[in-house]
Each structure stands twice: as C-alpha cells, then as structure tokens.
Amino acid sequence: MKIKLMGLVSVLATLAAVVLSSSACWFYMYQPEEPASLRDR
Amino acid sequence: MEKLAKRIADLIGNSLGQDDEQKQVVAYGLSAILQFLAIFVISSVISLIGGFFLESMIMLFAVGLLKRSVGGAHSSTMLSCTIMSILNISIVAALAHYFFNSSSILIPASLVAAFIYITALFLVYKLAPVDSGNKPIVKPEKIKRLRRNSFLTLAVYILFSIALLLFANKNARLISMAVTFAFASGWQSFMLTRVGAVLIHAIDKLFDKEKTRT
Questions:
Q1: Do B68 and A27 touch (CB under 8 A)?
Q2: Could you tell me if A3 lies within 8 Å of chain B, comparing CB atoms?
Q3: By the CB < 8 Å criterion, does B148 face chain A?
Q4: Hey, is the C-beta of B136 within 8 angstroms of any chain A C-beta?
Q5: Which residues of B touch A38 (CB under 8 A)?
Q6: B45: which residues sit within 8 A by CB, 6+ positions away?
Q7: Is A13 an 8 Å CB contact of chain B?
Q8: What is the pLDDT of residues B114-124, one digit of tens each?
Q9: A31–B134: do the CB atoms touch at under 8 Å?
Q10: What ipTM does this complex have?
Q11: CB-CB under 8 Å, A13 with B26
C-alpha cells in the first residue's frame, strides 16, 4: 500500500514536472533550475 | 518547501529504486505542487473570510496560466514568491470585488477592462516570452509556440470578460469577475516589463532584509 502511494506521488510529480517543462516558466513567480532531462530550451 | 520536496523525493526514490535524475524530476514536480497548494489554500482562506473567493480563484488561475506562456519577472526564493503571490491575488481580488460591485459601474468597468486588455496585448506582442536565467528559451519554434499560446490565452480571457459583462445587468457580481480577468492579464503583462522586474527584485530585497534580521 505504502509503495503504491509512493508510486502514485512519483507519477503525479513527474507529470507536473513534464507539463511545466514545456512552458515558459512555473505557474507563479519562482523558477528553480530544471533537471537536465527536462531541459527544452 | 523545496527542502521538503527534496526529502520526500529522496524517500520515494530510495523506496522505488530510482536514480538521481529521476529523484530530481520528482523533487522539481513536487516543489511546484506544494507551492501551488500553499498559494491555493492560503488565498482561499483569506478570500473566503473577505467574501471575494471567486475573484481570488480567477486571479490565481488566470495569472498562473498566462504566466506559463508569457514568462516574466521571477522572485529569487520560493518563500518570497509564495508570499508575493498570495498578497497579489488577495489585494487585486479584493479591489475588484469592492470597487466593481454595482451595475451603475458597468460602463466604467468595461472601459477599464478594454484599456487593460489593449495594453496587455501590446506588451505581449512586444515582449513575450520573457525567459529567466534558470530557464532560458532560445529555440525559435518554442518561442513561436509560446507567443501563439499567449495570444490564445489572452483571447480566451477577453471573451470571458465580454460574456460576463453582457450578462452583468442580471448579476452585478459578474462585473467584478470580468474586471478580475482583465486585472490578471494586466498584472502578468506588467511583469514582462523592466519596471515589473525591478519591482519584484525590490520586494525580494525586503524579504531578504527581514530574513537577515530574524
């Protein structure tokens, strides 16, 4: 159960990261450095 | 929040056998989710108390979605960004709610919204997308796609505002909602300008001073 929950959180977070990587920046006024695999400059 | 996201990502990554890059991606996504939740929950509580929840949610989503394609000025820390975002959402939503709340103000509100939208379209045409040091944008096709999305998003907001103003004689609340869409567009296009960046950096410095004092 714990592993399933962790897997779900991991999938959701990865999905959020991928969606954000295709945009100009984050949803609000902060932009940390992107992980190398998400860079699309 | 970033540290918390990193800790959670490490915990999950170690349990699921992920490599460092996968952990960084999860931490990046989690930081964004946690920051969004913090802004959403605190803005919701403030606006529910103040009675301007709808305007507050319009401001939150309209600024956020437009920012994804136009870019703009950024805070240097997640904390100052979160505080500034909550203040910005709450103050603008309250202004729209309390100043544009009667049908007698329909024409001035329409003129204000029209002026803001024309200015926003001009600024987006001239400046968008504005990138940042942590996320440079150089690919011409990406710039083209972001510019197209910026104009599409603004067009949708303009249509929402027109539709809300057309039905405003039945419910005056629709006026403040229409004006909030315009304020969100105005604020986000102002963040594309140098003056916007200077303002954000000045507020950033204030938070830094407070941090040093405490």
A1: yes
A2: yes
A3: no
A4: yes
A5: 25, 28
A6: none
A7: yes
A8: 999 999 999 99
A9: yes
A10: 0.88
A11: yes
Residues of chain B short of pLDDT 50, as ranges, are 214
Structure tokens at B66: 């437009």
Q: Do B45 and B103 contact (CB within 8 A), yes or no?
A: no
Give B21-58 pLDDT, tens digit per residue: 999 999 999 999 999 999 999 999 999 999 999 999 99
Distance from CA of A17 to the nearest CA of B (A): 4
